[in-house]
Structure formats: C-alpha cells, structure tokens
User: Which sequence fits this backbone?
C-alpha cells in the first residue's frame, strides 16, 4: 500500500496490473507490472480505471496493435477487467477510482477448446 | 425368483462404489447421475476428458455433438481419439473410446455442428450442457439455446497456457448467461482458436476435467431438480487458470449476475426459440476476421 | 535422395504442431520432450490421465510401474483402462490405450510393485519421475530413490474430494524431498486409500493432468539439463485442491525447503542406494494399521 | 481484523480456522470456523498455535477420536499446518503467536491415487 510523490511533487499511487489469456503479449510478454500512477488526472479528478487504460496505451504498451486493447476510446469487447478479483461491472467499470495497492487484472476471454 | 430389491444393479454398485462412498455423495447422488442426460458440445480438447469422466461417473445418457473428423494434430490433447481413428467422425471416435470405458450407459451421437437450425432439437434431449466448443459463434448459440430451453450450462475454454471455467444459467433463469457477461462479441480479428494459436494438452485437459467435475457436483446435489421456491443464484464465480513458469496458478474471481437488459435471458428479452431458429445469424453477429488473425 | 534436413520428422511436426506454436514452447521444448524419459509410478487414477497427456505431448520414453490388475471398480476414474481389459495388468492395459493415442514413442512396462529391491534398477532408466501411487510406504520409497539417483519428482495425491500436488527434489539435491516435508509417517490408522475411502473421478483426474503439465513444463524449460552454477531451488509451493459445494477451490501454499538433518537428502544423510536396497523396511517405517482404518 | 473482549473483560482475538483433506470430519464436517480465542493463555503468554491446537481439542472437536488429530501432546504426523498460506515450519510451528485475522489451515496429507 504505497502513496508517494514523483519528482515534481505530484501525488502518486502504486498498483499492480496483470495481463492474462494472451494479452500479456501486447505488454512485452510480462504478466505482472507494478505501476506508479498520478493520483489525480490532469483535471484534478482521482485516477480511475479509464485513466489507467489510457495510461497503459500511452506508456506501457510497446505493441503497435492498439486496436487489440482499445476500440473507439474504450476497452475492446472480449476483455474482462477484474478489480481485486471482482468483475469491474460490480465496481463501477471505468469510473472506479483507483486506490493504492489495488490489483487490476485484464483477461482476454478465451474461446478455444 | 424374487425381483432384485435394490435401486442399482449389482454391476453398478461394483462400478460406482468408489465414488458412492465419498462422504456427501452416496446412493442418492448416484441415482441422480443415472437419471441425468448430459450433452457435450464439441468432442475436442475439452470434450474428450469431460466426456471420459462423465461416462466413468455413470450419467444415464451422454450425448456428443461435433461435425469434425479426427486429425493427427488433435491427438496431443484430444485423448479420447486415436491414431487408428484419424479421419473418423470425432463423435464416433470418442464414443468408441467411451464405450470401452463404460459400456453400461447410453450414448447419443450428433455428427453435425450445433446450429441455429438444430439447436432446439438437440439440446432439448438433455438436462445439462457442457460447452466444449472453440469459437464465439458457437458459445453464443449454445448459451442462447440453454437459456431458451432452461438448461444449466458448464462453460470452459482454453488457449495456449490459459483456461477459464464458469457455470451459467444455473439455476435456469436465475444465473447469468453468456450474453450477460459478454453482451458484445470480441472483434473477429482478436479471435484465435487452438488450431491457429496452439494450446498445451494438459491445459485444455485440466479445464475439461473440471467441467466434468462441475457437472457431476451439480447433478449430485440435485441441481437439475426443480428448485423449491425462489432459490437464489449463488455467488457467480469464474475460475481462471494460467500455467505460468513456476507452476499452475488458479484464481477464482467474482462475476456479475444477470443483466437486466440481457438480449437473451432478461424479462424483456427479444429472443425466442422461433427467433433463434429463423433469424439469429451468429456468424454475422460475431463478424468475420480479415485474413490476418493476431491475438 | 537427400537426407531429411529437419530436427523432427514430418509426422512429428504434424502431431505436435499445436503445442509447438504456443509462445515460449517451440522446437527446443519439443526436442527436450523427445529426449526425455519419464517414469509414472502407479497406473491408477493419477497415472492414467498423467500418462495420457505425457504420451500425447511426445516424451521420448514413457515407463509405467504397477503390479495390479484392472478391476471394474477402477473404471470410474482410471480412464486409460477399459471394461474389456478387466483382469489384465494395469501397465499393459494403459499401454494398450497409450499406443493407440500415440504409437510413435517408446513405452516400457514394469509389471511389478516398485520396491526397495528394484527401485534403483527401474528409476535409473528415467530422467523424471511422477509419483502416482496410493500409500505412504511407496511415497517414501519413490522419494528416497529419486534423491539417491538425482531425479526430480512430481508428486500428487487425491482422496475423496481433495488433492495435493508438489514438485520435489528439483533441481536434484536442492529442492526438498518428501522426507523433508514429512519426516515422520502418519500413524497407519489415519491412512485410508481411494479404495477404502473413495474418491471422485475428476478430482483425482485433475491432479493427474496437473502432474503431466508440471512435468511437461519442467522438461520444456530445460529443467532436466545440468544447471549452470549453483542454481537456487525456486520458492517451494504445494497446490491444494478441494471440490467444495460451490465449485472447485485451489490454494497455493508456501512450503519449507530442504531439511538440514533430512534422513534422505541432507549432507549428513545416512541413506545410500545400498542401504535402501538392503535395510530400509518401508512397511515397518510406516507401520501397519489395526483392522479399523478411520480417516 | 478483530480484537475484542469477552464477557469477563478478557482480551480476545478472532481468527479463521480451516480443515481440509478429510480432517473436517473431526470438526462437525465444517470446513471453515471463525474462532474467538483468549488473546493470552492462563499463564499470561500470547496465545500461540500450540494453544490453538489444545483449544480445538477441548472446545471445537466433537469427534471422540482425538488421536486422529493429536498424539503425545502434539499434532499427529501427517497433518500440515498452514499459517496464512505458509507452512508453519516457516513461521515457528507451535510457538507462532496468533494475530487477529490470521488464517490457520489444517490439512491431512493425502496418499491416495
Ligand atoms: Zn443473459
Ligand atoms: Zn529431504
């Protein structure tokens, strides 16, 4: 549970982000990332999941195939988001405000059999 | 001679004795299994182990649906088939294996793809369905048919080193359906099956065995019998599996319940059996991928 | 004609292609599997599914040890056997099934109980061992033999609705052995096998498939090759499974490492191969139950 | 995380105790128990796992076959104790001092196959 400040003195929060079901290949084949995020966005609102998705696209994803993660400004269909092991639909989806120590898991739904 | 006074035949006590003595199982669970009719949709990497353990446990009727033939490239994971049966219908190949394991139950073969046209005719013959298919189009179709016919659905999937398992529409009309969880299909470019993306045999094997376990437990505890009163759907959980470098990793996550405006299962749902048969185009709903499929 | 220029035969690319394309697997992992010799001790509820997925994945040599014959009461969970093979040696019955699944690898049958007298002769023919047995005496014996011969050991067990899985002696001489974790055997009155206490088929099935997965992953990542330098034992974890009423439950727990004064694997250990063969009485060590076995 | 007082004003701590691998049948077939224990034993020492095992035998176990749980004053061989998902041998075994909210899992080692 970490809240810290970055070099400019802005408040940060540290969360764990995990990828599974094949999504890890968009993020340098790394399943687990520890991320320090600004605690508030540029408009001064608490950072939420929408902000995190944006941050992942801009600062973490190396793969150029962004459309496999976001489509039309939102997460693409077929990706589950689990906030501390609960479906994000139980937690407010993109509006959920991140707390230090949160675990956010992005899982591609699988169809193989 | 006197009539046999026991509810199971002698050979059944012999065959099923080792599970009947498990605490909480017993004769009643065995009789429920014997009276159950279970449909396995897909005789591939999930369907093979799932069907093996369902047949072993003694369900009354076990049905298999699949239109494909056995290929050599299936055999690292589809353990009910055999090299000598390459080219044979997967359904018949699997049933050949299952009959050797347990010749005392009834098998039904459906050598066809489950489709909007035949879904009602096939699914209505069974009490419980296992989705062991490998494409979103069939996953939406199987779920819709289960919703419309009031059948619980044990759904699993696997890809590369990952797997997922969830019990849907259970009890029927109470638990969420596949569309409640995934109202919009994934873009076709993001859909890759085990044939194109690969899968480790025991990864899909574990998920198939867990499907059989979930089905057996649901049947054993009376989950197919009409619920007394308004039984609540249990907390909805999905099991997520990853075969990571330092060993197997399982995670049970909490999922949402029914969606009030679900196209398939909500009170205002537009879906009917007639509609399903005549006007739902699952291929169009899920789209068709451009040539290069990537994830 | 030119010599075949590829490291695997054409039919091997066909058969194993779907696992070779899994990211992180590839040709090197397939060649490692092909060069590996794996021993499955026990052709029962764990050994059947474990051997099926090992054979499917293409290990080079697959050995099975078991002295028992197939019985009808095995068939709800021992899915490599068949009703027509009741009375046949379990090892031969399982190999009959495995050869149909994959006739392109080498099978070795050992139709005998693993014992202190034959353990060295049998285990020394393999690189990796799976403990699929069903009694503490054999679990201590298999572990001791693996320690003395420097073989990693994938150990699993199941009972009623529970299962356990752990990787032992890996890398050899670094990870803990069975005696490190359980220096004293359980009192014989507390020991009940699946025959007496029962087990659900898919419960033991899941554990057997996970054993195959753990073995395949260890081989694929080069875990059988001599480690460079003093490679540390990874964090030791045991997977605990329960089939509880509301679905499957897995729990991964942290275990202790090697025991400094372990009778088998410590630097001052008294155990030698000669000692094992001539003077370790595993039955006496584990004791003999009084007639009523309870837990 | 609960610390409370019982009716005599003695400090209590609440922990979760679980049984698995068949041991639950010694404890009324109940896998999970929430237990309120005295925070200190009768000699004023912090309650430890040894104290818990004693407490389970005296106050929780209904089964008369005590020898399937304890032998010679200690836990019988063949039972694993996991304190917050770690082998008790990593935590001090019987001497581990319980903290509010701890999870203690007793698992019978299995031998079937
Ligand atoms: Zn729905
Ligand atoms: Zn040792």
Assistant:
């Amino acid at each position: 549970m970490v809240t810290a400040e970055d070099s400019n003195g802005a408040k940060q929060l540290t969360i764990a982000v995990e990828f599974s079901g094949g999504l890890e290949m968009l993020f340098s084949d790394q399943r687990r990332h520890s991320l320090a995020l600004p605690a508030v966005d540029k408009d001064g609102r608490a950072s939420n999941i929408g902000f995190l998705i944006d941050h992942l696209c801009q600062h973490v994803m190396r793969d150029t195939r962004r459309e496999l993660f976001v489509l039309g400004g939102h997460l693409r269909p077929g990706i589950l988001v689990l906030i501390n092991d609960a479906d994000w639909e139980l937690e407010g989806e993109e509006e959920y405000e991140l707390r230090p120590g949160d675990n956010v898991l992005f899982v591609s739904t699988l169809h193989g059999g | 001679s006197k009539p046999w006074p026991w509810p199971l035949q002698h050979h059944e006590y012999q065959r099923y004795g080792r599970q009947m003595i498990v605490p909480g199982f017993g004769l009643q669970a065995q009789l429920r299994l014997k009276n159950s009719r279970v449909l396995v949709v897909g005789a591939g990497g999930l369907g093979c182990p799932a069907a093996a353990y369902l047949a072993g446990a003694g369900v009354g009727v076990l049905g298999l649906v699949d239109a494909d033939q056995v290929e050599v490239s299936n055999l690292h994971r589809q353990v009910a088939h055999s090299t000598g049966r390459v080219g044979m219908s997967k359904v018949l190949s699997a049933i050949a294996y299952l009959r050797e394991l347990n010749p005392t139950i009834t098998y039904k073969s459906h050598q066809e793809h489950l489709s909007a046209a035949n879904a009602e005719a096939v699914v209505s013959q069974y009490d419980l369905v296992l989705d062991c298919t490998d494409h979103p189009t069939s996953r939406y179709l199987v779920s819709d048919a289960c919703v419309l016919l009031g059948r619980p659905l044990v759904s699993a999937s696997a890809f590369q080193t990952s797997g997922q398992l969830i019990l849907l529409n259970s009890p029927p009309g109470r638990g969420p359906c596949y569309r409640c969880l995934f109202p919009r299909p994934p873009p076709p470019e993001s859909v890759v099956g085990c044939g194109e993306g690969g899968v480790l045999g025991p990864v899909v094997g574990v998920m198939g065995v867990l499907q059989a376990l979930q089905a057996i437990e649901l049947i054993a505890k009376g989950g197919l019998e009409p619920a007394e009163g308004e039984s609540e759907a249990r907390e909805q959980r999905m099991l997520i599996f990853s075969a990571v470098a330092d060993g197997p990793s399982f995670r049970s996550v909490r999922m949402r319940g029914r969606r009030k405006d679900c196209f398939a299962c909500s009170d205002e749902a537009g879906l009917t059996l007639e509609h399903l048969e005549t006007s739902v185009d699952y291929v169009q709903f899920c789209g068709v991928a451009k040539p290069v499929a990537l994830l």
In short: The pocket of zinc ion (ligand 2) is lined by residues C 176-177, 179-180, 258-259, 262, 264-265 (CB under 6 Å). Chain A has a mean pLDDT of 90. DSSP finds one helix and eight strands in chain A. Residues 4-108 of chain A form a domain with the Ubiquitin-like (UB roll) fold (CATH 3.10.20.30).
